[in-house]
Amino acid sequence: METNRRLWLKKIGIGVAGIGLTNFSSFASPFVSENLNNSFENDTNLIFLRSNENPYGPSPLARKAFVDNANISNRYNWDVATQLISDLAKRNSVKDENILLGAGSTEILDLVAKFVSLDKGNYVIADPSYDYWTVTLDNLSLTKNKVPLTSDKKINLQAMLEVVNQDTKLVYICNPNNPTGTISEREALVEFVTKISPNTIVLIDEAYLEFTKQQSLSNLVNDHKNIIIVKTFSKIYGLAGARIGYAIANKTIIDNLANLQSNTNNSVSVLSKLAAIASLKDDKFVSNCYLLNENVRQYTISELKKLNCECISSNTNFIYFSLAKYNKDYFKQLENNNIQGGRIYEEQGKWTRITVGKMGEMIKFIKAIQ
Is this model's pTM higher than 0.85 or not? Predict the structure, then answer.
């Protein structure tokens, strides 16, 4: 099943990236290859439900920022970085010194991996969880301690706490968790942090927290100097391709991470920073995306259950469900209908994940697998 899916993705071209850029060819340079140009064309027959992107694109204010400021791309952007950091500090009730920008949250995660690997030891992570970035930890010789989820697919904080020892350099918690969509309650996380040794970094990945009503843990970073909060503009803000994320932490940790960043706060383009500044002002767009996602997610879960697919209650823009009782070749059905979906995360129960797209896309998805 997984082999068929890989062959299909290779056939259709996994690099297709044209969501929202329907007019790319109208301003593409004649020196841009036809293949690259075509890769940015929005193929309306292809439905992207694989990478948890926001199907509604960037906010109107962010799009305007891209267009209006293209002419200053020839200039470095230190002043813009300062403005964005200030805006993010105010948004998260911290000081400017508590913020570090990165090219997506991925760069921040990579910096943390390098930082904690300066001394050898181990790290703790739920299984399954978002672990693509941990290859850096593995390559730098930290030992991985995977902790199974609870029976209802939640992160088992108590079990994670029990495997932490004097050699544990990092505990990673994705909240809400990817791929399961489950959330750890804020009070439980606060309690967890208070029990962890101050010598162990606790990395809280809040990539999907804006799809919930739960408050960030950012206000804890000064009282608990071992906490790092990672946030991104890739998800609800719809700027995945613009690559912009940030860390919130105690000043000492921020300084240590910055020392590992070759050009502190400036790996993000001026246009991405300006789009992020604009996005923070567009609360209406964020609210609309939240409500649309809630409605479409509820519809999709309801229809999946009719197909005997057990679904985990989601706090995100994706759904984790089981194919154990599904009586067709799920990935073949997706392939036949030009839909990019997820993969199998847990063989036992055949658990997979699907992104919540627009209502029309999810209606097509359900029809495709019926």
Answer: yes
